[in-house]
Amino acid sequence: MSTSDTRFMALALSLGRRGLGQTWPNPSVGCVIVKNGRIVGRATTAPGGRPHAEPQALAQAGAAAKGATAYVSLEPCAHHGATPPCAEALIAAGVARVVAPLADSDPRVAGQGFDRLRAAGVAVITGVLAEAAAADHAGFFLRTEQGRPKVTLKLAASFDGRIATATGESQWITGPVARRAVHAMRASHDAVMIGGGTARADDPSLTVREMGMERQPVRIVVSRRLDLPMMSRLARSARDIPLWVIHGPDVDPALHEAWQGIGAQLVACELRGGQLDLRSVLQALGDAGLTRVFCEGGGGLAASLLAADLVDELVGFTAGMVIGAEGLPAIGALGLARLIEAPRFELVESRPFGPDILHRWRRVSTGSHSNA
C-alpha cells in the first residue's frame, strides 16, 4: 500500500469515529474523495444512520468525483434499503478507484459491494489499515455476526479496587478530568447500561453533559423485578431521553404499567438460575439495533457479564486512594477456584487523566474479518 493510501484511509477512519454512538444500527463510516492528491469531498454517516458517508462525500465532490479515488472505512453497501446502494453511487459518479480496509460483515453486503465495483471497472484496493477498522467496527460486526452489541465495562475504583465505602459513599473517587473522559466515552456508545442496584444507590442520570450532545445514548437499567424508584432522575426524564428497562418475565403487572406510563421502554428477557440471562439481554439489545453498549456497573452486573464471557473491553480509572476491605468491591463474586478460570484481557493503553490512571484492556481476538 502507498503512503498516500494509508494517510487518506487514516482520515476516513477518523471521520468514522466521529459518528460512533450516533448511527446505530448502521455502522459509522468515513469517506474521503481525493482527486490529483487533493481532497474534494469528505463525510461521515449522518446521525440515525443515513444518509451514508459515500453519497454525502460525492455530493461535495460533484464533477470532481469522476476519475477520483474514494477512501471508505468499510465496504460500500450493495443492497437496496432506505437508500440506494453506495456502490452504485460510486460507479455512477465515475470514481476510478476505491480503497477500503475490509469487507462488511452484513450478509446483504459481504463482498458484493466490492464485486459490483470491480464488475463496473473500478479498481478496488483492500486491506489498508484493516486492523484499525476492525476495532472501530467491532460493535457492528458483533451484531451482524453474533446478534449482540459490543460491551465495554467501565470501572472507576480506588487503588485497592473499591467503588464505595462501607456506608455507600462513592462521589467522587476519581477526579473531574477522568469524569469528563467518561462522558466522552458515553457519547461514543449507543447506550449506557447499569444494574438495578446502582440505579437505586446512586440515582444517576446517565446522560452526556457539557459536550453539546443533541442525540443522547439510550439509558439501560437491568432490573430483574423492576423494583426501581419511580421518582428517580432516570424515571423523571424517561419521556425526554430514551430509557430502556430490562426485566424478567414475571414482574408485577402494576409496576410494568407504571414504567410504561412514564415513557420507559420495557424489555422482558429470560431467566437462568433465577437471574436474568445476560446472553438473552444482549441478544434483545442487538435485536433492537444497538451495536455498542457502555456498562458502568455495579459490581453484580459486572461480575455476571464477566462470568458469561460477554465483556469485550475493560476500561478502568484508578484513583490514588485506598478504602480498605470493608469497602464495596468494583466486581462482585465470580466463584473462581483457580487462576486459570479468571477472565483475562490484553492491555491496549495506559495513561494519566489528571491525578488518576486510565487502563484499557481488550478481549484477545479469536478471528479476523475478510478483506475480500
Automatic annotation (TrEMBL):
The keyword Cytoplasm does not apply. GO terms for biological process: riboflavin biosynthetic process. Residues 3-117 form the CMP/dCMP-type deaminase domain. Binds 1 zinc ion. Its cofactor is Zn(2+). It catalyses: 5-amino-6-(5-phospho-D-ribitylamino)uracil + NADP(+) = 5-amino-6-(5-phospho-D-ribosylamino)uracil + NADPH + H(+); 2,5-diamino-6-hydroxy-4-(5-phosphoribosylamino)-pyrimidine + H2O + H(+) = 5-amino-6-(5-phospho-D-ribosylamino)uracil + NH4(+). NADP(+) binds at A156, W172, T198, D202, G298, G299, G300, L301, A302, A303, S304. Substrate binds at S170, R186, L206, R209, E296. Pfam families: dCMP_cyt_deam_1 (PF00383), RibD_C (PF01872). Signal peptide: none annotated. Pathway: Cofactor biosynthesis; riboflavin biosynthesis; 5-amino-6-(D-ribitylamino)uracil from GTP: step 2/4; Cofactor biosynthesis; riboflavin biosynthesis; 5-amino-6-(D-ribitylamino)uracil from GTP: step 3/4. The active site is at E54. InterPro entries: APOBEC/CMP_deaminase_Zn-bd (IPR016192), CMP_dCMP_dom (IPR002125), Cytidine_deaminase-like (IPR016193), DHFR-like_dom_sf (IPR024072), Eubact_RibD (IPR004794), RibD_C (IPR011549), RibDG_C (IPR002734), Riboflavin_Biosynth_HTPR (IPR050765). Its EC number is 3.5.4.26, 1.1.1.193. GO terms for molecular function: 5-amino-6-(5-phosphoribosylamino)uracil reductase activity; diaminohydroxyphosphoribosylaminopyrimidine deaminase activity; NADP binding; zinc ion binding. Zn(2+) binds at H52, C77, C86. Keywords: Hydrolase, Metal-binding, Multifunctional enzyme, NADP, Oxidoreductase, Riboflavin biosynthesis, Zinc. In the N-terminal section; belongs to the cytidine and deoxycytidylate deaminase family. Converts 2,5-diamino-6-(ribosylamino)-4(3h)-pyrimidinone 5'-phosphate into 5-amino-6-(ribosylamino)-2,4(1h,3h)-pyrimidinedione 5'-phosphate. PANTHER family: 2,5-DIAMINO-6-RIBOSYLAMINO-4(3H)-PYRIMIDINONE 5'-PHOSPHATE REDUCTASE, DIHYDROFOLATE REDUCTASE FAMILY PROTEIN (AFU_ORTHOLOGUE AFUA_8G06820). This is Riboflavin biosynthesis protein RibD. It comes from Marimonas arenosa.
